[in-house]
Specification:
The protein is mainly alpha-helical. It has two domains: 80 residues; 148 residues, no CATH class. Helices cover 65% and strands 0% of the residues. The chain has eleven helices and no strands. Helix 3 runs antiparallel to helix 5. The protein is elongated and about 135 Å long. 20% of the residues are buried.
Length: 286
């Protein structure tokens, strides 16, 4: 209830109290008058004067008390309005997110590519804590705010990858050595700068499928599935409304064996045999 409405309500109540008080005084006067009928006329006049004086004094006193009450309430209402906290500054939230280069939901996925996942989690925890402190003494930003959506997605990432609970996404840790090499690939898969500000199902699907193809070619199908699923969850946390995740996976013509890496490409026995024969032939020809 606003200050104006409160004051209007109190004024209405005060008017009603005045009416009731006048009515009660009138009744008391009548009752007193009737009980004193057996007195002589002079005594009746005395009682009338006395009751009138008391009623008049009571009326003045009641009005003064009610006015003081309204004034005090008005002062309290003004003080309450002055004590209202300011709205949270979205720039502060943005600066904290910038400490770990989170400018889009796809950039949150890049935290997986840090050399040390424990350092990534520690830095993420520090950023989340600072944002929590920033949002403590102010009016919270709307949930539709761009940076609040990124903040929500970052909290989800931290809970899935850094929390104590054993989540499905944590299985990506088994392929961390390979995932760290996906940094440039994940950057190539990012959508336009402002795509997630307005929900785009097409862009969403292209991003998670691109992540899947790049991961399958480098790390294998299993970690690629995990990454695609996790990417979809993280990105959806930052969208105004969730995008459906298609169960149809894009075709990868030559996926790497699970846990593979660019540093150690797959080499068949036939390739090794041919290499040895060529080396021996070169030695004999010298």
């Amino acid at each position: 209830m606003t200050k104006t409405k409160k004051l209007k309500t109190l004024k209405f109540v005060s008017k009603q109290l005045k009416r009731y008080s006048i009515f009660i005084r009138f009744l008391s006067f009548v009752i007193c008058f009737l009980t004193k009928l057996n007195m002589n006329t002079r005594n009746i006049y005395k009682w009338l004067v006395l009751l009138s004086a008391v009623s008049l004094a009571s009326c003045f006193w009641s009005n003064r008390v009610i006015e003081e009450f309204i004034n005090s309430f008005s002062n309290v209402a003004e003080d309450d309005e002055c004590d209202q906290p300011d709205s949270c500054d979205e720039m502060q939230v943005m600066l904290h997110l910038a400490c770990i280069r989170v400018t889009s939901p796809e950039r949150i996925l890049l935290l997986l590519t840090w050399d040390s996942l424990s350092k990534s989690c520690a830095k993420t925890s520090n950023v989340v804590q600072h944002i929590n402190e920033t949002l403590t003494d102010c009016v919270p930003l709307p949930t539709t705010n761009l940076y609040m959506r990124l903040y929500r997605a970052l909290i989800f990432f931290y809970g899935q990858m850094c929390g104590a609970a054993e989540t499905k996404s944590k299985h990506l840790e088994k392929y961390h050595n390979c995932v760290t090499e996906l940094r440039d690939d994940l950057i190539d898969c990012e959508g336009p700068a402002d795509w997630f500000e307005k929900r785009s199902k097409t862009q969403f699907t292209e991003i998670i499928n691109c992540n899947y193809v790049r991961a399958a070619m480098l790390c294998g199908v299993k970690p690629a599935r995990l990454l695609r699923s996790f990417a979809a969850e993280v990105i959806n946390k930052a969208l105004l409304s969730k995008c459906p995740v298609s169960s149809t996976l894009p075709h990868v013509s030559n996926p790497m064996s699970d846990g593979g890496s660019r540093s150690f490409p797959h080499v068949s026995f036939a390739q090794v045999h041919i290499f040895l024969l060529a080396f021996m032939l070169q030695c004999f020809m010298q």
